[in-house]
Amino acid sequence: MEETKKTSFGMKLFKVLLAILVPLLFVVLLAALFLKLSGADPISEVKHLIFPESRTSQQSDSSGTEETAQLKQDLSNAQAQNKQLNRDNKKLTTQINDLKDQLEQQKNDADTSSNQMKSQSETATQAMYAQTYRSMDPAKAGAILSKLSVKQAAKYINYLDDKTKAAILETMDPEKAAELTKLLEAKLPNTNTTESAGTSASTATTSAP
């Protein structure tokens, strides 16, 4: 009798457990099916529910990896920009140096041109003085030079050829002529060309209508 009661109690308990476990198992399977359809891993989700710290650790690791990758990308971009800036700086430096060279060349050309013009002007002036004194009577030329300082008179008389110098000095006061003689310069052969050019220019001007 007692064994029958124990058996009856055991069956009731088994039925109760089945009544609880079967719906619970059904709910678990249904939840797993939904998670599978949604693309999630049911096993991973269960692990995360049981061990929530594991998900936090994974998220932290993932976040750290993303930040590291972003920092590397930013560093790479900064290095590329720095290289580009260096290339641009070199180009600008080259252009500036080229401009400086061009300006220096233009300055040198301008100085050369100015010196040439100055030399031509001085040559023309010397030719004019030489032609003027050579065209004058030596006595009159000597009288004019006598009124100038020795230094100034020597400057003008040195524009002339040796023959004209001698003719003018003969008409001057001996003391003045002696002082001028000390300042006389040798007449270079190419200066005759200047005087000839001045003579030709003067002749052409005189003969012009």
UniProtKB/TrEMBL annotation:
Signal peptide: none annotated. Residues 130-185 form the Magnesium transporter MgtE intracellular domain. Residues 111-124 have a biased composition (Polar residues). Residues 105-124, 188-209 are annotated as: Disordered. Pfam families: MgtE_N. This is Magnesium transporter MgtE intracellular domain-containing protein.
